[in-house]
Amino acid sequence: DAGITQSPRYKITETGRQVTLMCHQTWSHSYMFWYRQDLGHGLRLIYYSAAADITDKGEVPDGYVVSRSKTENFPLTLESATRSQTSVYFCASSSPAGGLSYNEQFFGPGTRLTVL
Amino acid sequence: DQQVKQNSPSLSVQEGRISILNCDYTNSMFDYFLWYKKYPAEGPTFLISISSIKDKNEDGRFTVFLNKSAKHLSLHIVPSQPGDSAVYFCAAIKDSNYQLIWGAGTKLIIKP
Fold this sequence. Notes:
The structure holds two protein chains of two kinds.
Chain A: E1 4-7, E2 10-13, E3 19-25, E4 31-37, E5 43-51, E6 54-57, E7 64-66, E8 76-78, E9 87-94, E10 106-107, E11 111-115
Parallel strand pairs in A: 2-11
Antiparallel strand pairs in A: 1-3, 3-8, 4-5, 4-9, 5-6, 7-8, 9-10, 9-11
Chain B: E1 4-5, E2 10-14, E3 19-25, E4 30-38, E5 45-51, E6 56-59, E7 62-67, E8 72-77, E9 86-94, E10 100-102, E11 106-111
Parallel strand pairs in B: 2-11
Antiparallel strand pairs in B: 1-3, 3-8, 4-5, 4-9, 6-7, 7-8, 9-10, 9-11
């Protein structure tokens, strides 16, 4: 399928378990992002990547790990899940903007994660 | 410290009338402001943007206004249609570094 996909769409896990959320895009966008959305908050950036093997922290990176060995994939790992990480997670991608312009971010459908 | 604020959690508008969604920000260094629309169980989709050097941008039924002195922007939808019922997020970006700062969203309900 063309576009950006996330898997799984729903996940229930227990405190302390490791969980990996997958994100795959077919546009060859260089930029990829992970956000979490919680009630009363907008989306908050967890990590982003400007290209393969280049990642950087966002606003709320603690407890998360990312990697990007291939341009099209950007997995997010919760090494030891906590209840506070119960959230909806969105992956997004974007191509670089030229000069002072802005290129929109395209979002996946989200993964709803529940940590018991 | 919320740099982008949407103070109305929800808004109800009659079909055919104008919908006005508001957003305030605190950082005068933002370069672009964007509106995204989100339906349940889907990711946000880009709607319209405005550069900090403009005061208005129009795209069909959607117009965004930027008042830099008041650090305020608004999204106007005219006329409102049932398919416009969704959550609308205001977001801002600084230095084109791709880090979007999001408001909490406003749920728009269009009544038939």
